[in-house]
Amino acid sequence: MADAGQRLSPDVLSDRPLNAGSMNQIAVDIEHLSKSYGDVLAVDDVSLSIGRGEIFGILGPNGAGKTTTVELIAGLRVPDGGSVRVLGLDPISDRGEITRLVGIQLQESRLQPKITAREALQLWSAFYDDPEPWPQLAERLGLTGLLDQQFRTLSGGQQQRLSIALALIGRPQVAILDELTTGLDPRARREVWQLVRDVRERGVTILLVTHAMEEAQGLCDRIGIINDGRVRAVDTPDGLIGRAAAATVTSFMAESAVDLEALRTIPGVAAARRESGRIVVEGDDEAPFLVLSCLESQRIVPRRLRVQDGSLDTAYLDLISTPPVLTDPTPNLTQEPAR
Amino acid sequence: MTAQTMPTLYPTRRGSPTIAVLHAESRLFGRELGSLFYILLFPVVLLSILGAIPSFREDSADLGGMSVVDLYVPVTVLLSMIMAALMAMPSIVLAYREAGVLRRLRTTPVRPASILVVQVLLHAATVAGSSILLLTVGRLVFGTPLPQSWPGYIGAYVLALVASFSLGAAITAISPMPGWPPSWDPSRSSDRCSPQGCTSRCRRWKDCSAESSSSPRSVPHRRR
Question: pLDDT digits over B4-18, tens only?
Fold first, then answer.
């Protein structure tokens, strides 16, 4: 119901920067959202709750429905079914308010070819009542030396950084960043990550669409994995790794032949293989111990033994290749809607 | 309110976002030298070339006492309108649409319509400048009389402007664009909505009609 009772009270709107008390509120609430293009179901019954001040990552393969999901959240598309609430507002019917509260960096969206970076920053500043001082933002994003260059002459990474600046210039309460660091060099990427963390410190909710595992693991508080338009799992990065079949990776060298079949039969072991002279065993938390006792019974001495955490990479591949698991999509936050 | 009381430490633009769009777009329009040439200078250059032909400057009884160049003043006025409305404006707006500028603006408090309105205003203003230039050159150089009824002239002028820009807007609206609607799935590029899909469908339809035109030939053949 998009009635007045659901709207934000004025004191929340003027409360900038957001105080810590607002942390346990829901910023983005999606329920049973669906959207199809013709016969193709792009988003299929997606439910997510994102808390205020949270960095939430949406992860999934190409064409999984990630971008459609964020476009529905941003109000750029009308959902076929279900509901979206952003800060208690309906992105479609409360369009004007949403554009002031939500900053968006769209994937593959360019600016006027001949606009200079300075003009773009000035123009976007004029859109908002209380914009971020753009020179500082430009400096944070390494754009200061590029201000007089036209957009078409900027490199992909420079365009990307300008696009991030424009998404954040209106002091949004929710920032949606689609493919944040695509095309950025490693140093720029780290600087952008630090900027995202700083922005979050002010209480801004950040919705990150990515398929860079390192980014998701290092930056996000929680990650939602989407595949085929459905939410496969929602958890913290560590939680996702722990949930996957390959939470640990045990590797060692052996002088004598190792019976890989015997290793594979150990309960909790997901995979065992030979990899450039080493034996690599992926498994759950208990697996390394059981592997070692198995080796002992085979009278094999493991050399250069290493036990590592499984990567989010393997966890992700594991989760998108298995059929959907029923997960609780709600965060550890109070379920009361923001009032 | 805070924006106005705050000391401006850096140059920025306050006031209506639409005014800011107008300001930014007029600066960008100033960089479209090709468009400016064809709207502002090309018609007057054409008029001057035609006026350089001596026989075109002679009053003719066939033309009701006017010269050929007299007739070309309104023609070149219309030419600058057509250049602006059908050539210059659609190419800018289509480029914006293709780059996602309009989509990007939809995520801000500014309506994308404002950028379209601003484009029409800028092009119309340039046309007006061009028309003043043409009337002045016609009057001063070739002695073409100014319009006798200004209200009638301006009325017809505005109607012509509205007609050309409506036509330009219609061309812009129906122009196919690669990747529109924005595909979320690369496999959808052959979708019926996309221009490529449409043309391939038309081709397929043509192929079908070619087949059907050949099959009737074969069918009577069999009947015989």
Answer: 444 444 554 456 888
Interface of A with B in 47-106 (CB under 8 A): 62-63, 65, 67-68, 74, 76, 96, 99-100, 102-104, 106
pTM: 0.73
My answer on whether B217 and B154 are in the same domain is no
Asked whether residue B2 is domain-assigned, the answer is: no
Q: Are residues B24 and B93 in the same domain?
A: yes
Provide, as residue numbers in chain A, all residues whose Cβ is less than 8 Å from the Cβ of B32. Answer: 114
- Rounded to a whole number of angstroms, the distance from the CA of A250 to the nearest CA of chain B is 38
Co-location of B123 and B42 in the same domain:
yes
Give chain B positions within 8 Å (CB) of A109: 99-101, 103-104
Three-class HEC string of chain B = CHHHHCCCCCCCCCCCHHHHHHHHHHHHHHCCHHHHHHHHHHHHHHHHHHHCCHHHHCCEHHHCCECHHHHHHHHHHHHHHHHHHHHHHHHHHHHHHHHCHHHHHHCCCCCHHHHHHHHHHHHHHHHHHHHHHHHHHHHHHHCCCCCCCHHHHHHHHHHHHHHHHHHHHHHHHHCCCCCCCCCCCHHHHHCCCCHHHHHHHHHHHHHHHHHHHHHHHHHHHHHC
> Does a structural domain hold residue B9?
no
Chain B residues near residue A124 by CB distance under 8 angstroms = 108
> ipTM value of the model?
0.70
Tens digit of each residue's pLDDT (9 = 90 or more) over B34-44: 999 999 999 99
pLDDT category at A251 given cuts 50, 70, 90 is confident
> In this structure, are B157 and B190 located in the same domain?
no
What is the residue range of B64's domain? 17-174
Q: What is the mean pLDDT of residues A67-82?
A: 90
In this structure, are B146 and B203 located in the same domain?
Answer: no
Total count of domains within chain B: 2
- The answer on B146 and B208 residing in a single domain is no
Angle, nearest 10°, between helix axes B112-142 and B89-99? 160
pLDDT band (50, 70, 90) for residue A239: confident
